[in-house]
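Reopening closed ticket. The problem is back. First fold of the pair:
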Amino acid sequence: MNSLKIVIPIFVAITIVIIIFNLTQNEVSEERVLELKNSSEINKLMDKIKMDKIKNDELENPFIPKEREWITSGPFKIDRSEYMLGEKIFVNIDGLQINEKGKVVFLRPINNTHYSSYHNMIFDGTGQRNNYYFTPDLSIISGICNTDDLIGNWKVVFQGTEYSDLKFKVTEEIIPGNEKRYESVC
């Protein structure tokens, strides 16, 4: 009976603390949502997105992203077989074994028979990294001066594994709004 006198007040106190904690968390969350809704920075960004959409829709050939295809080699996947300049190349690693380690090497074409390393991504089966993306860009430092240096049939090699290479194509088309990004830099 004495233990019941102690347990009941402790239970009531814990319940009150939990209720107060939940109410404060809800108020804090609601305040943050209101801050976001009222933020002029977000409103400006939303206006820019709306204007970009209107401009895109008014184009003779508006940009509409292609469906993802998910081309695979073992646990490695890329989302498409063909990309426009300005599109992100998504890489997903699903089901990598714990002992699998190596490097994903993206090779850009130099000509019909030779490639140059463009981008490397280390992978390790003991890590948690499953998704990755990048966008092929011009670079003075890398000697990638104009779009001709990016256009063509690329290859993805998985060093340290027996997985087959993946191939994809970068076309000369540029996503609307990215034209300045692909003006010659050298």
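Second fold of the pair, where the issue appears:
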Amino acid sequence: MMEHEEIKALLPLAAVDGLEADEARALEEHLGGCAECAAELLEYREAAASLAMSLDPAGTEERIWSRLESRLHPPPSSTRIATSDREAKRASRPAGFWRPAAIVMAASAVAAAIYAAVLTVRFGVLDRQDAKLLAATTRQITQLQDALASAEGEVATFHRVLDDRSKLDKILMQPDLHLTRLERMPASPNGAGAIVAVSEANHAAMIQVSGVPPTPKGKTYELWWITKESGPVAAGLFQVGANGSNAAPASLPPTGQHLLSSAVTLEPAGGVSRPTGQIYLKGNRD
């Protein structure tokens, strides 16, 4: 009984029907219990079929025999010396004498081509698998980068909020602190309100809002100083998230002008120089 490795060595010839009868029987028995060899034989046969499609099927075998015979039995030259008895006997052997050797040579060449084709197919599959793995890994890296960028943005926002609240705390501790309470207007829901804190000594102003609707896309909230001399003067922009609250810095009221009140309106993103939107909060200076 032939061993597994011996059977594997026969697969290239089996793909081109080049086995002897006993080899074919041994192969058939082995394939009944070996999925590996059955799959490999199928690959060899598919490769052989593809190879055959690229060759001219007509007269291939006859050309092989012609070429072998012409190389092995060149026509006698007019000036050639008579051969010895041994050479004459060798020359007189029928063409069929060379056929087994030619079969082996041809089968070996075809088997080599089939094996190369099978390797090409296998490496092509591996390349496709590697490409899919690389694409999946690239997508994961991109997702991780996006998540990291989002996390960094959230951290930056958190630090900014903490910084703004720290500034507000410092202003609230100043002896010259002046507070203005802003009440809700019809555009705001119940419970909305704000505190505007100003410290001339600290050269800072802040607004703390709560209960205000989240900022719509393409919009911004804008704080205004309303003075006796100039009317509304832009004081700062801020956004409000889902929780409805925020603490944001503002510019100081105009120097030398009499501050009458403060207000918050909803304006286009980037702000405007004069109020155009609805008033959400407003309060008079005490």
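Update: turned out to be a display glitch only; the data is intact. Helices lie at 4-15, 21-31, 35-53, 60-72, 85-91, 99-172. Residues 33 and 180 are 91 Å apart (CA to CA). Please close again.
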